[in-house]
Design goal:
Blueprint: H1 4-15, H2 17-26, H3 33-77, E1 80-82, E2 87-90, E3 96-112, E4 121-135, E5 138-145, E6 155-164, E7 167-174, H4 180-183, E8 209-217, E9 221-229, E10 241-253, E11 257-269, E12 277-281, E13 291-296, E14 303-315, E15 318-329, E16 337-349, E17 356-358, E18 363-365, E19 374-386, E20 393-406, E21 409-420, E22 428-437
Antiparallel strand pairs: 1-2, 2-3, 3-4, 3-22, 4-5, 5-6, 6-7, 7-8, 8-9, 9-10, 10-11, 11-14, 12-13, 14-15, 15-16, 16-19, 17-18, 19-20, 20-21, 21-22
């Protein structure tokens, strides 16, 4: 703040002393010439001090401007570091960025056996480290799951991507566009394991594929197409080819209500010598018994064609989701085999909160968590059947509860009652998960 107005006021006061003093003398005032001289000297000294302060203020203002410019220059030449929700570093020019993330899912299982014996155990279901970001207009993602093995065994997403037209182009290793629950992140799936109408059953062992994909993401609709080979990250070099496409639409999409419609198609054409294409069902949960539903052998160079329909919705705390899938497994001898899989699942949030719908991907995510956390009751009925082989079918009832401690931490409990219709085996599983992600 400059002091010039104060100095001007004092100067005016000093200039006006003469007439006032003369009038005072005429009126026999008590002021003397010595007192007047002393007062003038004091005013003059005060004005000199004001001049010094004004000069210092101007110098400090110049320093502040120089410091601001210097700080701006430092910021322009240093990377930007963000820590909200993880660690992200962006270059000064914005051309490069890097973000570190990860997830840790620690499970425990106990079984109530029927025809066969199974041992309860604990395991790290997932232990992933993710590196993602951008470089010169291209996005990238590299993800390794150390719980699935090292090197290629644990490779998950590994791709580069770039906006192209109304959508985005992907090149590398990622999930084909098929099955709503399959495309939902493992951090956000409703139960501890996905249903049979996904890579957990219908596309057993074929969750990630190498290829090229294109995804259009609108506010309430999406459309994706991927072309891939059948060689997984660790698969043999005898490769087949495939493609998959999926489209979704949410005619109702508000803060509290959502209606989702979706459909997908998948084609896998194996080369002679490729790995077998198989559908299976772990009908009493992970690490429990499994039933092979259908197989297309690589030696036969046959194909698998599948399609699926999706219906899901949300109304306040209530959530429901269902999929129907049908796949034809080619056979070297005899007619092809049709496999049918479907599930219905739902949940109820007990103390506020609701699922988040991601219209650009056509999937539901976890609720936003604040305060003391959220409780969710869950349920699913799951079914898969080979229509051409008698009694080759499995089903499972799952009841569960999720506790969202905070946005990064969730605890899950599932009780599964399964049935193998071929053998009559009806085991049950108790499972619990502690899940942390960032």
């Amino acid at each position: 703040m400059r002091l010039t107005p104060l100095a001007a006021a004092l100067a005016a006061l000093l200039a006006g002393l003469g007439p006032d003093i003369a009038a005072a003398q005429d009126g026999n005032a008590r002021a003397t010439d010595a007192e007047i001289a002393e007062l003038k000297a004091q005013v003059a000294a005060l004005m000199n001090r004001i001049d010094e302060l004004e000069a210092r203020d101007e110098a400090q203002s110049a320093i502040n401007i120089d410091n601001a410019e210097a700080l701006k220059a430092v910021q322009a030449n240093n990377p930007k570091v963000e820590t909200k929700g993880g660690l992200k570093v962006t270059s000064p020019d914005g051309q490069f960025s890097m973000q570190v993330g990860g997830r840790l899912h620690f499970d425990g299982y106990a079984f109530d056996d029927d025809l066969n014996s199974h041992t309860g155990t604990t395991e790290f279901r997932r232990a992933r480290l993710t590196l993602s970001g951008s470089a010169l207009g291209w996005e990238y993602k590299m993800e390794q799951d150390f719980a699935a093995g090292t090197n290629l065994d644990g490779l998950r997403d590994l791709y580069i991507a770039r906006g192209l037209g109304p959508g985005k182009l992907f090149i590398g290793h990622f999930k084909p566009y098929r099955s709503m629950e399959e495309l939902t992140s493992s951090n956000e799936i409703l139960m501890m394991e996905r249903p049979f109408a996904s890579a957990t059953g219908l596309f057993s062992g074929r969750q990630f594929q190498q290829g090229v994909g294109y995804l259009y993401s609108g506010s309430n609709r999406s459309a994706g197409l991927s072309v891939f080979n059948l060689r997984g990250a660790t698969g043999p070099r005898n490769e087949g080819m495939g493609f998959a496409g999926r489209a979704t639409w949410a005619p109702i999409m508000s803060g509290t209500e959502v209606l989702h419609l979706g459909a997908w198609y998948s084609h896998e054409n194996a080369n002679e010598g490729s790995a077998d294409l198989r559908a299976s069902a772990s009908y009493a949960g992970r690490r429990g018994p499994s039933l092979t539903i259908a197989t297309t052998t690589g030696a036969s160079a046959n194909q698998v064609d599948a399609y699926g329909l999706e219906l899901a919705g949300m109304a306040g705390p209530f959530f429901a989701q269902a999929e129907y899938a049908n796949a034809t497994f080619g056979q070297p001898l005899g007619p092809d085999q049709d496999v049918e899989a479907w599930y219905v699942q739902g949940s109820l949030m007990l103390n506020g909160g609701r699922k988040v719908y991601k219209g650009g991907n056509g999937v539901f995510g976890s609720p936003k968590v604040a305060g003391t956390g959220l409780w969710e009751l869950t349920a699913r009925y799951d079914y898969i059947e080979n229509k051409d082989l008698a009694d080759v079918a499995a089903n499972a009832w799952i009841l569960g509860m999720n506790y969202y401690v905070n946005p990064n931490l969730r605890v899950m409990f599932n009780y599964t009652q399964g049935e193998n219709e071929l053998t009559g085996d009806e085991p049950a599983q108790y499972a619990i998960r502690t899940q942390f992600s960032f």
